[in-house]
Amino acid sequence: MRTSIATVSLSGSLTEKLTAASRAGFDGVEIFENDLLASALAPGEIRSRCADLGLSIDLYQPMRDVEAVPEDEFARNLRRAPHKFELMQELGADTVLVCSSVSPLALDDDDLAASQLARLASLAQDFGIRVAYEALAWGRHVSTYDHAWRIVEAAGHPALGTCLDSFHILSRGSDPKGIEDIPGEKIFFLQLADAPLLAMDVLQWSRHYRCFPGQGGFDVAGLVRHVLRTGYDGPLSLEVFNDVFRQAEAGPTAVDAHRSLLVLQEAVGVGELPASVVPTGVAFAELVTPDAEPVSALLGALGFARTARHRSKPVDLWEQGEARILVNTGPAALPHSRLRSSGGTPINGTGLAAIGLESPDPRAAARRAEALLAPVLPRRRAPQDAPLDAVAAPDGTELFFCASGRDPELADWRADFAAVPHEPGSAGARIDHLALTQPWHQYDAATLFHRSVLGLHPQESVDVADPYGLLRSRAVTNGDGNVRIVLGVGAAPADDTLHAQHIALAVPDVVAAARAFRAAGGGLLPIPANYHDDLAARYELADDELDTYRDLGILYDRDAGGVFRHCYTRTVGRVFFELVERDPGYRGYGAQNAPVRLAAQHAGR
Amino acid sequence: MRTSIATVSLSGSLTEKLTAASRAGFDGVEIFENDLLASALAPGEIRSRCADLGLSIDLYQPMRDVEAVPEDEFARNLRRAPHKFELMQELGADTVLVCSSVSPLALDDDDLAASQLARLASLAQDFGIRVAYEALAWGRHVSTYDHAWRIVEAAGHPALGTCLDSFHILSRGSDPKGIEDIPGEKIFFLQLADAPLLAMDVLQWSRHYRCFPGQGGFDVAGLVRHVLRTGYDGPLSLEVFNDVFRQAEAGPTAVDAHRSLLVLQEAVGVGELPASVVPTGVAFAELVTPDAEPVSALLGALGFARTARHRSKPVDLWEQGEARILVNTGPAALPHSRLRSSGGTPINGTGLAAIGLESPDPRAAARRAEALLAPVLPRRRAPQDAPLDAVAAPDGTELFFCASGRDPELADWRADFAAVPHEPGSAGARIDHLALTQPWHQYDAATLFHRSVLGLHPQESVDVADPYGLLRSRAVTNGDGNVRIVLGVGAAPADDTLHAQHIALAVPDVVAAARAFRAAGGGLLPIPANYHDDLAARYELADDELDTYRDLGILYDRDAGGVFRHCYTRTVGRVFFELVERDPGYRGYGAQNAPVRLAAQHAGR
């Protein structure tokens, strides 16, 4: 189906919005009147610009407070309308959105509404324009889609149809099944938006908190299925008012938006996307650093052994059990590092730059990612390298799809490495989870990316009190928990470089691992005694157990499924490690201990 | 009365919070448990620190899910309680907050709740501790203050009382009059918070949107009056969970907080503040600039004449009718410029640094400001200067209280200036309003400051769509509109230096003024033709009138009281001028045209 986006959904000047929509692959746009008024481009120039960008202008919006008003008021409305219809002719837009009236002058009189809308439609028809009438959820007398449709039906004018908007329908809890009673050719337009399920005033909810389909709590796909059954063949168009998107760069927002429509189309069975290929494990995590020494010392103390060296690049492989870390001391300015400056976080000093994900079918995984607008990275970074499939996540992290040694037909990243003599590392460790700080404006985008591109399951977003603001984080995991990524954002847009990334290592015995780390010269994050005093009050722990936790800075959490014990290393650059011992049934990440950890990290700076 | 603040209301480490509370003049604090847990200070050290800072520890909070649970669960709670009571002894805190249970285990059984609370109180009493039981608005079975009080009354234990919290009471719409039925000595604590009137889930509202009394929509003063009638003599204590305050520097937040309690005490008749002295006009606005040339050219083109020169400093006075602008090319690092680095906006290049306000009693105005924690500026900047009363606003703007030539007994700022030969400036102009960008985290603080310190009336906050995010602004005015200040904030915390300040000049004829400005070489902000095309659709304006507006970039607005016509100059540094022609009945500031103006300003960069 054709895809469209309202200009109000994107940040910037009209030109920036149109460019971003085009680059992200949209077929058309809705022009929001205020964006036109504020633009220095004349309507004809906007039309040309859109044509150059391959965009149709699918809707001009909105006209307000038109219908069901006293005749003198309506006469004024009719006198004003030709101004807009002429403008639309210059734009080359053939459909105008009329929102149900919120005016105190509006009368609760469906016959009057119908007859006035028919008169407006007659006038519009003279200009070759169609009128799409939409029920605002807070319309004065008309606030439901079925009511708006009854008025359109009563008007019986060929140039008058209805516009459906998923936010207005689902925010009121209306049953969208009734949409199927509307003939498809009378649905002149379909606007889509999702929203988090907030108990709040619907106008404020609509104006500030809408999001793209799949990022909120509405069943937008279910609604679209009803619409498709009517035979509707217009565009799927996004109209999202969101305070965050207003501030964010238009380019990444438009990509996120278009991705949401691709996923939606897949969900309703009209899109053609390569099937999802869910990763089964973490092959490696790659750190880039200008100075290998501090990272090497940290890895050594953690029990990693340096097992191999890249054949052509300054990259070392460190291993411990099933955990593999690459340490890259090459130039941090990788070929695709422009991604980082476009919404992503530039890597200064030591950072987590790439993740290798074990994939049942790396090529297929990359094809799906590409179809879902993930930038594809060059398969070979150097001529002699194994041809790996890799894409960039929204935060700039490189994701490599790996088939480590499973199939001789498939490239193996390890073939690029030559073994070096080494002592064996500690056994039993694996990567429990990776925590990545996201660009602040792209928290929901990051979730949608990991869900749709990688097929990971998002868990609930949690607020975490840092001493200097509320952070948010959300885990995305595969089915068996062998891939867990925690996506976090700081308290404010400027904070994304302030907060560290981390690698959590699952170990069989966190006490033993922490002791060994310290014995090897590693620095553990000290945890205040007050925390452990409180543990003593909350849980019935043996005194010597508590003393051990105190000594090592081990934190403790428990849920219905089991116990979670964890501790932290000091930070190197932007990266630190966590050692975790997780009961199989425990589902979380020790979020309730995070404020204490964060305060301790601030105190140590 | 004694004033206190919960540590959760402030940002930073516990040490930073305590320091900020003390410096702002609080008498005590509530220690929020998580702040203690995350602190490296032992309880005894916290006690000493508070003593050194002159702070008592008035409350330790909270204990949760204690009461009305099955006996085995309650037995566990009782086993845990001594840990906390011992901790409180070390802290020197004698009152603990117990919140009504939200546990799914809690039973709807007031007798059980009363008996268990009495048992807890008996245990507490052994440690010399009192238990203050509070109804959370979202408590499972106990969610209103009168219900909590009935349980406390039924328990009949001397160490058990109630804690009242204005948020929990007013957010549920409870009538606070019933508070008077509670004996004052059984009100063990009073927590105060205001909140904007939002229709939203009460838990989210409470956790993220509380604000200080006078910054929201609740009648906190009314509630406090009921409490005082009971004979309550404990502290007035602020407990505010607010996402913005969590991020903001603790120092300015604590000052804002304490100011709110001073104003509240005045409102309920228990404080002693010098009476409010409302300014009657704008004596001058002062621009600082490293280069007088661009500003002088702009002022000259606007019809200002350079009429006088400061006797000892590089400051020129420019006049036009009743509008007076000082242009200061001296060092921008004024004695109090440290204020700007503490939450205020540093002035880079050309900025609006000071405002002279005509005051019926400058000394009294300064005394009130000082009593309300405004930093007082040196009366004489140089030995020979007139001794003026001046304070700093939260954004660092200097406010001078002036009595320009009204009373020979009072210092006159104009005495510092010597006339220079000049052509007369244009007649008829005066300063309509001054628009000042506020530090993002201090929007509500700025409003409270201008209301309480200056006695100005805040109008509604309005959202304005900038192409790159939603801005907010709120006007504060005196009764007759001769003093109007518009306080604005950017879309995100980092934006405060991006947005310009401006001086709006009221002129008798904006068309004539704009033409004269252009004829004198001034640059008007061009407004897109699309805007004026839309004006033609919305209003029945004569064609030649519209052509004039188009030509000059004049914007047009109309409300029930009249018409507002305005246009803008190009920006110099951070400052631009607006020319406005305001019908006497028009109340606004052309906010609906602001998106077009902002887009035009972005386009011109």
TrEMBL record, chains A, B:
<feature type="binding site">
    <location>
        <position position="502"/>
    </location>
    <ligand>
        <name>Mg(2+)</name>
    </ligand>
</feature>
<feature type="binding site">
    <location>
        <position position="239"/>
    </location>
    <ligand>
        <name>a divalent metal cation</name>
    </ligand>
</feature>
<comment type="function">
    <text>Catalyzes the conversion of 3-dehydroshikimate to protocatechuate (3,4-dihydroxybenzoate), a common intermediate of quinate and shikimate degradation pathways.</text>
</comment>
<feature type="binding site">
    <location>
        <position position="433"/>
    </location>
    <ligand>
        <name>Mg(2+)</name>
    </ligand>
</feature>
<dbReference type="Pfam" id="PF00903">
    <property type="entry name" value="Glyoxalase"/>
</dbReference>
<dbReference type="InterPro" id="IPR050312">
    <property type="entry name" value="IolE/XylAMocC-like"/>
</dbReference>
<dbReference type="InterPro" id="IPR037523">
    <property type="entry name" value="VOC_core"/>
</dbReference>
<feature type="binding site">
    <location>
        <position position="191"/>
    </location>
    <ligand>
        <name>a divalent metal cation</name>
    </ligand>
</feature>
<dbReference type="InterPro" id="IPR029068">
    <property type="entry name" value="Glyas_Bleomycin-R_OHBP_Dase"/>
</dbReference>
<comment type="pathway">
    <text>Aromatic compound metabolism; 3,4-dihydroxybenzoate biosynthesis.</text>
</comment>
<dbReference type="InterPro" id="IPR013022">
    <property type="entry name" value="Xyl_isomerase-like_TIM-brl"/>
</dbReference>
<dbReference type="InterPro" id="IPR004360">
    <property type="entry name" value="Glyas_Fos-R_dOase_dom"/>
</dbReference>
<feature type="domain" description="VOC">
    <location>
        <begin position="281"/>
        <end position="404"/>
    </location>
</feature>
<keyword id="KW-0479">Metal-binding</keyword>
<feature type="binding site">
    <location>
        <position position="578"/>
    </location>
    <ligand>
        <name>Mg(2+)</name>
    </ligand>
</feature>
<protein>
    <recommendedName>
        <fullName>3-dehydroshikimate dehydratase</fullName>
        <ecNumber>4.2.1.118</ecNumber>
    </recommendedName>
</protein>
<feature type="binding site">
    <location>
        <position position="165"/>
    </location>
    <ligand>
        <name>a divalent metal cation</name>
    </ligand>
</feature>
<keyword id="KW-0456">Lyase</keyword>
<feature type="binding site">
    <location>
        <position position="134"/>
    </location>
    <ligand>
        <name>a divalent metal cation</name>
    </ligand>
</feature>
<comment type="similarity">
    <text>Belongs to the bacterial two-domain DSD family.</text>
</comment>
<dbReference type="Pfam" id="PF01261">
    <property type="entry name" value="AP_endonuc_2"/>
</dbReference>
<dbReference type="Pfam" id="PF14696">
    <property type="entry name" value="Glyoxalase_5"/>
</dbReference>
<dbReference type="InterPro" id="IPR043700">
    <property type="entry name" value="DSD"/>
</dbReference>
<feature type="domain" description="VOC">
    <location>
        <begin position="430"/>
        <end position="570"/>
    </location>
</feature>
<dbReference type="InterPro" id="IPR036237">
    <property type="entry name" value="Xyl_isomerase-like_sf"/>
</dbReference>
